[in-house]
């Protein structure tokens, strides 16, 4: 069973597929959100959840005080499940599911994001992640945090200019990477 861990929707159950999606475990989600609270990255954040699967990460962020979330998954079946979970958590007014690829969504989106989750299937290559991150950087706010989940046997994803690694932590078979926008990029965005 997957559920919202804390906040306004605490305890609400989330639907998960029988197979085909690897939801982030409660233990890993709790660790991620403890770190995000430490970084003060949740309050009123504009959240983008890429490769959303069940939507658990984006919905947990909303439950803990984020303002808005877009949950993206290329699978229509996953987006149907995400919509079901949006209804179950009563976040219909602030959460949207988008059935498209992560890269297509980022390329076309006009929003600026404060918090981004990337939890791709393990078979997604680091090259694909690097391309996505490079496309994402200009759409990040000055204080943005990006959270990337990968199989711990994989190399660390290469971060483009505009993102700095804050920390990385292993949880079982998963490594979670945290990155943010470096100060010089923030000032360049303000000037440009």
Task: Give a short overview.
Keywords: Methyltransferase, Transferase. The protein has helices at 26-38, 56-63, 76-88, 102-108, 126-136, 183-191, and strands at residues 2-3, 13-14, 46-50, 68-72, 95-98, 113-118, 140-151, 164-171, 174-180. 39% of the residues are buried.
3D structure, described in words:
Keywords: Methyltransferase, Transferase. The protein has 192 residues and is α/β, with parallel strands linked by helices. The longest helix has 13 residues, at 26-38. The mean pLDDT is 93. It is globular and about 40 Å long. The protein has a single domain (2-180), classed as 3-Layer(aba) Sandwich (Rossmann fold). The protein contains 6 helices and 9 strands, in the order E-E-H-E-H-E-H-E-H-E-H-E-E-E-H.
| Overall tally of structural domains | 1
CATH class: Alpha Beta
* SSE string, helices as H and strands as E: EEHEHEHEHEHEEEH
Morphology = globular
Average pLDDT taken over every residue: 93
How large, in whole angstroms, is the Cα Rg?
Answer: 15 Å
Q: How does the helix and strand content classify structurally?
A: alpha/beta
Low-confidence stretches: none
**CATH architectural designation:** 3-Layer(aba) Sandwich
Helical segment tally? 6
CATH H level, superfamily name: Vaccinia Virus protein VP39
Stated plainly, the CATH topology is called Rossmann fold
- The span between the termini is 47 Å
Indicate the proportion of strand residues: 25-35%
Strands of the biggest beta sheet: in what spatial order? 5-4-3-6-7-9-8
């Amino acid at each position: 069973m997957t559920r919202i861990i804390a906040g306004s929707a605490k305890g609400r159950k989330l639907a998960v597929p029988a197979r085909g999606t690897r939801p982030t475990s409660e233990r890993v989600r709790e660790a991620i959100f403890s770190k995000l609270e430490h970084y003060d990255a949740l309050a009123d954040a504009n959240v983008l959840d890429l490769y959303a699967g069940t939507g658990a990460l984006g919905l947990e962020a909303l439950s803990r005080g984020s303002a808005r979330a877009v949950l993206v998954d290329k699978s229509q079946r996953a987006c149907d499940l995400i919509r079901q979970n949006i209804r179950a958590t009563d976040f219909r007014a602030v959460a949207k599911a988008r059935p498209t690829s992560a890269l297509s969504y980022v390329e076309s989106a006009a929003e600026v994001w404060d918090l981004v989750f990337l939890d791709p299937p393990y078979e997604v290559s680091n090259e694909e992640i690097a391309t996505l991150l490079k496309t994402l950087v200009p759409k990040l706010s000055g204080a943005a945090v990006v959270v990337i989940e990968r199989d711990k046997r994989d190399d660390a994803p290469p971060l483009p200019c505009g993102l700095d690694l804050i920390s990385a932590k292993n949880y079982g078979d998963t490594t979670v990477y945290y990155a943010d926008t470096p100060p010089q990029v923030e000032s360049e965005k303000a000037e440009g």
